[in-house]
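Duplicate of #3305? Posting structure anyway:
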């Protein structure tokens, strides 16, 4: 049974994500529960019809069909330790950032050490490319390479952000002299050929030190550094949410996902833990079922992403791909509640609840000896929920039309707690700098550094400075700041160095990079 979004406002945002396709369990990206979608009754999944005698069963029948552990809801939910941590941006950091512009908030997440790491790996990759004479023709543009530095790398990333804000048909059009395309912003940051050379050479790992069967080697070190900063600067609140995001990619890649019903049918999957209005706290890239089958099961994904946040009395929100009775039990052992939608075909589900025939607006629930509640509710379609925090109680709510109706409290809690991932994905899509490429690691790096990190920095800005700022204005400010970075006056050699001297320095650097190979030949 597909999920939809119970909340009407959330349903509008996710409408184009809904699909009637049914993929395999690893390829299916479950959606939120949609209750206000206009669907015909023929599409509603009806449970097995009960006989008259079955319809009149009392809740005690739970004991007869599903064993003694399931019974009518008693409200005996487990009592966990209270959540007492102070959530939000680190206090000491807030005092420093209160006077900063958006670039200062972005630099708190993507600091100079990360840029220097990218510079080192880019220069290393360029050296490896140039020393391999078989891959370099005499007139190749790579022969014009000279080592980059942190100032140039910042301007490079600032230009990539700018290109997401201002869209032109081709990359070269940003340096075009035609009146229709002419702009001075890109040319003031760096020449076109240098930008294209950096775009070709930018790297995030040493290709010659690739561990066997590590598909994420080209990116994992960078992801670890950025995620560490995400987790250091902010403490999540009581409610956290896990879901997956999809990065469109049509190149050849073994861990690429195919989703027939989606707008972008070929994607790379990223598991995300979000909190606080869309702040991304942790990330795990899906590397494929065959290479890491044990770590990519739904329960393992949740436990790994949430490991730093367990044992604190928090509440985890998941959709029906992750939610199961075994996950709820594991989280309870770690002092964490679980609320989520549930698939009807899970083995541990009580049949009396999943197969109960209901009229619109009715709900039916069962509770086991650990206080875990599984509830079936019928609105426009059947909805199956699991909660370790709620019983079967309902609350009256008013919709946009002014109509009053009853909804289970677990449904309301799910709708409220599920929004961070959706908000993160929605804000990230605005002015995204992602472009078509055959290099998957570059696309994922730009997604993490120039989308996820910027959204996180924007949320920090709003919390610390108590100012509303659009994602467009925040991106513009960061792009301006990065593109205006220049080395100190004593290091501004490139602006006055004659071309001949610069070429001599480049040739000397290439000669030094080839010296070890020549020495080994002499020996």
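Output from current build:
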């Amino acid at each position: 049974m597909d999920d939809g979004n119970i909340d009407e406002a959330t349903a509008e945002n996710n409408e184009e994500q809904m699909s009637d396709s049914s993929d395999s369990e690893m390829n299916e990206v479950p959606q939120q529960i949609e209750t206000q979608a206009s669907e015909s009754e023929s599409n509603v999944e009806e449970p097995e019809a009960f006989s008259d005698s079955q319809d009149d069963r009392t809740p005690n029948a739970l004991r007869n069909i599903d064993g003694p552990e399931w019974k009518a809801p008693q409200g005996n939910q487990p009592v966990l330790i209270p959540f007492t941590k102070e959530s939000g941006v680190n206090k000491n950091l807030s005092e420093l950032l209160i006077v900063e512009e958006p670039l200062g908030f972005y630099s708190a997440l993507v600091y100079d050490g990360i840029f220097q790491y990218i510079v080192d790996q880019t220069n290393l990759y360029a050296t490896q490319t140039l020393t391999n004479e078989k891959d370099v023709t005499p007139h190749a543009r790579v022969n014009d390479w000279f080592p980059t530095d942190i100032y140039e790398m910042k301007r490079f990333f600032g230009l990539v952000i700018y290109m997401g804000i201002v869209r032109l048909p081709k990359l070269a059009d940003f340096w075009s002299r035609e009146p229709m395309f002419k702009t001075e912003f890109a040319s003031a940051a760096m020449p076109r050929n240098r930008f294209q050379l950096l775009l070709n050479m930018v790297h995030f790992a040493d290709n010659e030190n690739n561990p066997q069967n590590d598909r994420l080697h080209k990116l994992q070190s960078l992801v670890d550094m950025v995620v560490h900063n995400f987790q250091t600067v902010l403490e999540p609140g009581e409610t956290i949410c896990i879901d997956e995001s999809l990065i469109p990619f049509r190149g050849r890649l073994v861990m690429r996902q195919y989703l027939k019903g989606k707008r972008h049918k070929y994607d790379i999957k990223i598991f995300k833990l979000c909190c606080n209005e869309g702040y991304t706290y942790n990330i795990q890239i899906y590397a494929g079922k065959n290479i890491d089958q044990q770590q990519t099961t739904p329960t393992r994904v949740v436990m790994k992403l949430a490991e730093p946040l367990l044992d604190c009395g928090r509440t985890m929100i998941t959709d029906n791909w992750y939610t199961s009775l075994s996950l709820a039990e594991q989280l309870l052992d770690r002092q964490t509640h679980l609320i989520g939608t549930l698939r009807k075909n899970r083995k541990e589900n009580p049949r009396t609840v999943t197969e109960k025939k209901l009229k619109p607006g009715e709900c039916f629930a069962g509770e086991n000896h650990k206080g875990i509640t599984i509830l079936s509710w019928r609105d426009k379609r059947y909805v199956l929920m699991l909660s370790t925090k709620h019983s079967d109680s309902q609350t009256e709510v008013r919709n946009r039309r002014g109509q009053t109706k009853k909804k289970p409290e677990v449904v309301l809690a799910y709708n409220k707690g599920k929004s961070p991932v959706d908000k993160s994905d929605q804000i990230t899509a605005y002015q995204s700098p992602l472009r078509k490429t055959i290099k998957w690691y570059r696309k994922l790096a730009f997604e993490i550094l120039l989308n996820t990190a910027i959204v996180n920095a924007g949320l920090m800005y709003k919390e610390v400075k108590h100012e509303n700022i659009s994602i467009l204005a925040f991106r513009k400010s960061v792009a301006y700041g990065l593109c205006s970075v220049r080395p100190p006056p004593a290091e501004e050699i490139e602006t006055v160095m004659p071309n001949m001297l610069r070429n001599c320095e480049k040739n000397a650097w290439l000669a030094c990079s080839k010296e070890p190979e020549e020495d080994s030949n002499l020996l």
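Confirmed duplicate; merging threads. The longest helix spans residues 440-465. The chain has 18 helices and 13 strands.
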